[in-house]
Amino acid sequence: MTTMQELGTPTALIDTQRMQHNIERMQERMNALGVRFRPHVKTSKCPSVAWAQIAAGAQGITVSTLKEAEQFFDAGITDILYAVGMVPSKLPPALALRQRGCDLKILADNAAAAREIGSFGKAHGEVFEVWIEIDTDGHRSGIKPEEDVLLEVASVLQDAGMRLGGIMTHAGSSYDYDNPAALLAIAEQERAGAVRAAQRLRDVGLSCPVVSVGSTPTALSAEHFDDVTEVRAGVYVFFDLVMRNVGVCTVDDIALSVLTTVIGHQEEKGWAIVDAGWMAMSRDRGTQKQQHDFGYGQVCSADGKVLEGYILSGANQEHGILSRTGEPDRSIAERFPIGMRLRILPNHACATGAQHPEYQAVMSDGNTETWLRFYGW
Amino acid sequence: MTTMQELGTPTALIDTQRMQHNIERMQERMNALGVRFRPHVKTSKCPSVAWAQIAAGAQGITVSTLKEAEQFFDAGITDILYAVGMVPSKLPPALALRQRGCDLKILADNAAAAREIGSFGKAHGEVFEVWIEIDTDGHRSGIKPEEDVLLEVASVLQDAGMRLGGIMTHAGSSYDYDNPAALLAIAEQERAGAVRAAQRLRDVGLSCPVVSVGSTPTALSAEHFDDVTEVRAGVYVFFDLVMRNVGVCTVDDIALSVLTTVIGHQEEKGWAIVDAGWMAMSRDRGTQKQQHDFGYGQVCSADGKVLEGYILSGANQEHGILSRTGEPDRSIAERFPIGMRLRILPNHACATGAQHPEYQAVMSDGNTETWLRFYGW
């Protein structure tokens, strides 16, 4: 146990009470809507966080790299969806995980990948569980629900003796909206497209036990998940300023921040210089085109109170420029003296977390615990 | 030794021949202009790279965090400038480094920090070598050459028994220019401001042995460094697309790239999906407002040939969207089939490197060596 005052800066802080509140809010919603919940742990890359999600009721996890799969499997979690399209070079590490007992599910959205999975699986005597990725909003990967290739991919996998685990989709474009009606519409589009794709498989006698959908905005906006079996979401565990602008949390829900120290001033410009630059905050400027641009982050007091109007307006590698929006604050040096500590709320929790080897988890008594996280591939 | 074909993706590659060329180009220029050279190692955070710079003639290094100072000192480098303003909470680790034999120089740009350094030094019987940061272009930190506080800071340090090591400045605004005349002008402004600040200290009998200036654009653009004793630069060791747009390198000088694999397509949009998203490239969009916007990076063949007009136009965490600028390429799936490997040149080498736990250094025989890098604070 360390006190906040003993921490070096910059440091990534987790407000564990806020995190727990976010976890419970999501899980209770999923329980009420009658679907399983499989959190995406790419946001935290931290077993302590994932175990808190599982303790609240999550069933399995979603990962974005095989390194995440390996690390979380080593931490004791076995039900893992690797939610990025499989390619031949990643089949050997995926096989190794399954042979160690990991219930790893892999993904395909094209016939070439399906054939590679099938022939590699047959050659190694492994029945891979494969989910088919569906594109319900045009933002990235996947097969559209009505495309012929959906049936082709499923048939290739079945003919090669692989297990058809289900379909999954992710309406990543939900991040582009900021009103409840639009979010409700994209959530329904995501749900309906996934259900339709599953129905097309079942109509020709193919198996599709799982219908998996989700993103933080759609998970928190959908009215119902009829015919969906599970929902996925990642960033809700911490939330961030992008999600505040989307409208699915308030700034007071944001559980991740960067603790920083004031190291200088440019008084005539109304600047304080802090030791959180883009290396600590990330280069993510996700709020730039949203309704409220927070620069590189929202400034808060050391104990987490939002200091309205003060943002990180600029960032170099290890220097952040703190200023007031609108009129420069000529009293900046008195307001934020050298050595003063502040917290900065991030634009994008996944990107900011990724800059840090560890989190300092702030407990209800104000002391902190080190929670390791990992990176790389 | 590993062959390129055996590497997993995404992976950060260093083209060691290009890197060596970049190191020699800079060092030869510094030698010809009669100044010492102190590279900024925040770009690589990798002892193998720093030792190549020192082998070519660099004298000492510049760091942006005390963790870098510790890591490079542990790797055998003793002459280290910590080029971020000192604050009280960082004096104990700075003292520990000096007590272990590290010739660490620290920085101040305000009287409050100077007083803290002085009183902490006196209390611990340590004579810190302190350099004063000068602001020659208004982009960030530092004291303007003509400000009264320059003499105040120097006097506070001298009166407390600290060593006045010199002055340093960094014309970071040089990144905003893209023509030789403007770069020459900002280089001269940087040099003249630093020399003027040093002169003001010497005029009142204060010591100022070092006059340290630099940034990659100004180091490569200055006509002369009269009265300057050393130059600093960082990103030149790898270069990147931002520096290509500034005009101080070509794309064929860029020594850092990310090796990636094609994992899918959206043919009607002319997209290939690759496994290098923003986690591998960073969120840096430094070319966005420059003369040539490269999106999240320039696409090259696996052996490094630029594929003109193909860029990473979008990035999610572990997915990159590869497309042609202008008219969509409807033959994208034949051009870039599933499993094909490509290299992506980064916007900003410092930011892209920071996403990776290690580099794969590609040697002249085509084999690769693992060069570890570190992160965090």
Automatic annotation (TrEMBL), chains A, B:
It comes from the Bacteria. The keyword Lyase applies. The keyword Lyase applies. Keywords: Lyase. Residues 255-363 form the D-serine dehydratase-like domain. Belongs to the DSD1 family. PANTHER family: D-SERINE DEHYDRATASE, ZGC:162816-RELATED. This is DSD1 family PLP-dependent enzyme.
